[in-house]
Amino acid sequence: MNVDIILSAREIFPDRVANKTVVVIDVLRATSVMVTALANGAKSVIPVMHPEEAFNIKKELGEENVVLGGERDAVPIEGFDYGNSPFSYVPEVICDKTLVMTTTNGTRAILNSKGASKVIIGAFVNDVAIVKALEGEEEVVLVGSGSYDEFTMEDALCAGKLAMDLKEAYDARLTDVSVAMSLLYHTAKGDLHKIAAQGEHYSRLAGLGYDSDLDYCFRSSVFEIVPVFYGGSIVLENMNG
Predict the structure, then answer these.
(1) Residue 239 lies in a domain
(2) How far apart are CA 178 and CA 159, in angstroms?
(3) For a FRET experiment, which of 21, 22, 108, 167 has its CA 20 to 30 Å from that of 160?
(4) What are the residues whose beta carbons fall under 8 Å from the beta carbon of 169, sequence distance 6 or more?
(5) Count of domains in the chain?
(6) Do the Cβ atoms of 219 and 28 come closer than 8 Å?
(7) Does 176 map to a domain?
(8) CATH number for the domain that contains residue 115
(9) CA atoms of 177 and 174, how far apart (whole Å)
């Protein structure tokens, strides 16, 4: 197994993901929300680039079948049902519904990865399940969505943890950037929040009062599920056969 890391949505070029298994990570908070929604019974998650697309899908599928969620600059989008907090997507809200999402960074990273042989949705909340699911893969690329096309500390830490765990589990060969992010995680693992809080995006969310989200999104292995982007929708792996 070879493991590479890409550190922002802007750096996802076709030749870096073609014929490879990609894990898209947006710890704060898109992929954490997607994993949570599916674990709480969502039928699927549809990532889109623009709010207008989300409104159109809701009209097509029916108001009663769709929940709109997302953000721009960490703020909920006008006209959407919910923002980008995992606590919004409890079972009574999301069970048997389709979540249509657009976010500043995470949904773009997913859509930019369409050329991969497989796209998995990952975060700290399902990290252990992701490592198990990658057994036997030859080429893995961990994609940190970043923020405004720049590196973010939280995505780098999660990618570093996954790379380190893949090295330990399968003796994976790590690229230089994967080694560097693994070392970052190893240095920070005693207090991830202390390191991540030095990052701009974490600080912005803290300033907006999302302390509970920040605590939740750094919890390891909350769920044992592996969402996969398949045919335009994100579903649980065992649903696409």
Answers:
(1) no
(2) 8
(3) 108
(4) 131, 135
(5) 1
(6) no
(7) yes
(8) 3.90.1560.10
(9) 8
